[in-house]
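Fold these two proteins, one after the other.
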Amino acid sequence: MQLNLKRPIVFFDLETTGLNISRDRIVEIGIIKIEPDQKETSYVRRLNPEMPISEESQAIHGISNEDVKDCPTFAEVGHEIAGFIGDADLAGYNSNKFDIPLLIEQFLTHNIDFSMDGRKFIDVQTIFHKMEQRTLEAALRFYCDQELKDAHSAEADAKATYEVLKAQIDRYKEVENDMDFLHEFTMTGKYRKIDFVGRLAINENEEIIYNFGKHKGKTIKQVFDEEPGYHRWIIDNDFPLYTKQIVQKETDKLIAANRKKKEKSGKPQSKSSPKEDKEALSNKLDQLKNKFNQNV
């Protein structure tokens, strides 16, 4: 069967130094790109992660530090990777939780322009888990009657994921051959996650909300009004860069809107009142509480 495509889609897989999206790095990337006319092209690169590969990761993918010591770094080939992907939709196996956020993290770390706007994100593992609940090797065996050769080779895993998705669409009448449907179908949880790691989500009113911690379920605007220092805590701490980027962008909008509102009112900037001074001090204390995670 053929995928019903209105735009290109890439199936990709990453082999990495570990599982921490913020700290770990890519050692191999494999991409299969499918055009609307079904033309296929591939891209495979091993990368020097500029950090040690954990023993646990080496045991899984078999790539050692010695294997990649002379390979290019992501900084050297990141623009090439972004160019190959282009404006394609993104698909993978467990990609919404791992591969996509880690790839975005690398693009942001190296200031490589890679917009997520307008793309569809299709996680083949989610379809599998909703329907059968198995591993990628079992999925390929179940749907395609094939054995996965070179498992945890990035290109082999990406190719297997592509074949599994086509077989899933063939097998299940309710799984439509439509990227909009697959994008929605492979999203999990009550709210649609927008930073992939699930720290931020979209509520039923299409507003960005915090999806964790003490402000879970509240919009960024609500939290900004109640505790202005909270967004600064996120920016300054160990959150993925894409999460930070969204929070910063939204708070910048709120700050600009507040400034415009003041200018429109025509009221001159006056010296702060004791009440305002007290609120400012309270906001600083909130920032310190968040930073050190303790009561002041």
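Now the second one:
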Amino acid sequence: MQRVSIVGLDGSGKDTSLDELVNNPPANVKVLLGSAVIGRGVAEHFELANPLKPSRSMKLLAGVSYGVATHVRYEPNQAHLIHRYNPDVVVSSREPIIDSMVYGPFYFPAVGLVPASVMVWLLHGLGHPLPSHVIFYDADPEVAMARISNVTARRAFTANPRKRQHHESFDGLRKIRQSYNEVLGLFAEMGVNVDVIDTTGLSVSQATAALYGALVPVLNSGNGGGEVRLLVTR
């Protein structure tokens, strides 16, 4: 079974492309479950803790604990879904190890004192499998912020308004982007296949086509050209 994690900046279009994949899958792909929400967003955890104004040591402990807690909640839930649906490929728009290493130092800078290799060792040692592939949705921070602003404005007076998160600023996205590049470089050194889709100048259809192109080798590997059973989790 192949595990693919789709990660990237807010405003890069990853969720929109994933929706397109679920709603219009390739002809040989059977979507078993289009969207299983199995974990809270990383930023929500850190923002819940920030009002407590913890000390430096407590921030470090909170950041490392977040990674462990995310694994404890995320991996058993995903394992249950895998056992239930028996997919050939799992595509997830969340990766606990990457989330912890990218967003942790932004919200709690003391987390940056923990070497990235140690964080990977800790979470992987708990039994969280590394993905076989990571697809990184990149975008120029200015373009990403414009998209975020547009979506926030459109949903402002709906039943499901969008709340802007603390890292959703030009400077925040720039820092997050740099962290992604560093973390994914480490993953590539560990043998994980990393593909980058820069959506800065792409339309939704073009970004989705790029995602399909990155997924085709994974979807077609080992199935002999037959039907591929796809599980999508978020």
